[in-house]
């Protein structure tokens, strides 16, 4: 009985608090960005379904809040920043539904406890994972992302949206992947898994150039190391160049062969005899 | 015989994984993505279902191209299987938190670096000869604790004049060391921030100051201490100067003691015989054994098994207060 009461009151063992605090501390190399899913003042079934589906895709690096929040990010972002900070999330997805903005989805990012950027979308023609019958993939698989359309290369808004989506869906940053885990090559077949939806861009708030610079700054230890002087020839061999200094060919120490040695003639020899 | 047709067919078969279109995609293999700039559809021209098909076809081709590129990367075979080493991602993504400032060296770390002193890994437990068991190296319960010495030898060169109690000296030295350690910690935090005390540092400094015996006490603890101090005066806190808002605790009745040595020897004799009588002739038939045992158990005594079944809800309050100090 005694033990039960203890655990119910959440008696924390030594070090748990310290470890939790350490986890939240900023790191030089950030590999994971958690997503926070939340609801606005009012939601529709569509939006709720979409939030669940997106949560399923971004698991396990996602946190879903169930209660409704009186948050309108484009008016006041402080409570949103607070929630993101508390839950240690770098991304948020807020779903709401009003008459003026039906099926509203706001996706945004947080940097240094402040709002970085966000986009507002209108969602329509949604088909959830549940509705689309077929196979689904395992939690936490890293996706291949394909962006169709030149807007993603040239239009500022869409470039930002692309950046945002990459951040949202990319999962954990890895350096190498297991070949066998990729779909069987070389012929690819795509099966619709869902969710399937159309987004219409509504409002957008981008980060200022200065903020972008500081946020995207990469620590020198993490920058790609330039390896010089290494290349591969057509046979696949690793090739590099060794640079020698200027050489005096007359005085190079080569292999000595007695046959080539200049022999002193008898006259020369006599010259030295006394 | 027309061989060209056969060759064409063979080539097509071999390159069946290459889509017909030209590869003009922009790749970022580090993030496993590609962007197709050539894809464009006029929404007005196309119907809903057709649009789906067009997008699906384009995506399929692009995925194929992307996968091909990934498969052509440098591979390394390891125990788990064949791994493909992804290049550095080219898309610039923002961080979530600021890059942490590199920690400045503490005074000791600087010194250790200069002298080439390295940390030797030491065992956690040390054998304590006095107790004959293994105790932790550090901490209040540590092995070979000097403070718990019961005998301290006097050194010959020490003069008895101005001689200070060595036991008290040990305790005071310890206190000094603790204070010094805290001061060093605070100095290190200030030095780490560059010499100025900032608001954010204040929290850290408060934490250091409130550590150990200075741990912040809860309101309950402070009330308890206050109650004790009030009671510890001869008048049980009745005539103490109290601050506005300070609670007044119910004071017990002052215990009356008889003087140890009575003037009248007869009274003392009577008293002592009374005590003896009470002890020897105690009528145990009045004792409610069940009640006694239960009370004993509820105070947290006895074996675990029986305590479990009989412990009162809530350890504090009620009869268990004061850790069950002997009550009749």
From TrEMBL, chain A:
<comment type="similarity">
    <text>Belongs to the RPF2 family.</text>
</comment>
<dbReference type="InterPro" id="IPR007109">
    <property type="entry name" value="Brix"/>
</dbReference>
<dbReference type="InterPro" id="IPR039770">
    <property type="entry name" value="Rpf2"/>
</dbReference>
<protein>
    <recommendedName>
        <fullName>Ribosome production factor 2 homolog</fullName>
    </recommendedName>
</protein>
<dbReference type="Pfam" id="PF04427">
    <property type="entry name" value="Brix"/>
</dbReference>
<feature type="domain" description="Brix">
    <location>
        <begin position="33"/>
        <end position="210"/>
    </location>
</feature>
<keyword id="KW-0539">Nucleus</keyword>
<feature type="region of interest" description="Disordered">
    <location>
        <begin position="1"/>
        <end position="24"/>
    </location>
</feature>
Automatic annotation (TrEMBL), chain B:
<keyword id="KW-0690">Ribosome biogenesis</keyword>
<comment type="similarity">
    <text>Belongs to the RRS1 family.</text>
</comment>
<feature type="coiled-coil region">
    <location>
        <begin position="41"/>
        <end position="68"/>
    </location>
</feature>
<comment type="function">
    <text>Involved in ribosomal large subunit assembly.</text>
</comment>
<feature type="region of interest" description="Disordered">
    <location>
        <begin position="298"/>
        <end position="328"/>
    </location>
</feature>
<protein>
    <recommendedName>
        <fullName>Ribosome biogenesis regulatory protein</fullName>
    </recommendedName>
</protein>
<keyword id="KW-0539">Nucleus</keyword>
<feature type="compositionally biased region" description="Basic residues">
    <location>
        <begin position="302"/>
        <end position="328"/>
    </location>
</feature>
<dbReference type="InterPro" id="IPR007023">
    <property type="entry name" value="Ribosom_reg"/>
</dbReference>
<keyword id="KW-0175">Coiled coil</keyword>
<dbReference type="Pfam" id="PF04939">
    <property type="entry name" value="RRS1"/>
</dbReference>
